[in-house]
Amino acid sequence: MTRPRKWKNVCCLPPVREFGPLDPASADAGVVRMDVEEYETIRLIDHLGMTQEECAERMGVARTTVQSIYSEARRKVARSLVEGLPLIIDGGRYRLCEHGEVCRKHRACRRLQGAPR
Fold first, then answer.
1. Are 90 and 58 in contact (CB under 8 A)?
2. By the 8 A CB rule, do 9 and 59 touch?
3. Which pTM does this prediction carry?
4. Domain 30-112 part of CATH 1.10.10
5. Per-residue confidence of the chain (117 residues) as pLDDT tens digits?
């Protein structure tokens, strides 16, 4: 029996969920789909400079899980850039931050920094 997948904590949904080439003719080759939790690992690790351990704590999963999610997210970003494919962020298995006391402890919460929702 396989182990049930764990929900990942995500601060909030990305303000922009679709990215792509400016040339519409190049978008015919397909689309790269990224889960919201993959986006969150890119945001926490690459944008905010967190370690994988800090990211794992914030998302409520093991470091090895973050490492796996992060690797897949970077692969998708690279594929989108190199092949000129649109990137769409949606879906996944995540739980949005309730911006309660637990969230206030994390410097990574965009809601507390006045970011657009």
1. no
2. yes
3. 0.76
4. yes
5. 777 777 888 887 888 888 888 776 665 678 999 999 999 999 999 999 999 999 999 999 999 999 999 999 999 999 999 988 999 999 888 888 765 444 545 555 655 555 443
β-strand partners of 114: none
CA distance 50 to 36: 18
How many other CB atoms sit within 10 Å of the CB of residue 60? 14
Q: How far is CA 86 from CA 6, 63, 81, 108, in A?
A: 28, 29, 9, 27
Neighbour tally for 96: CB within 10 Å: 12
CA distance 15 to 26: 24
Domain residue spans of the chain: 30-112
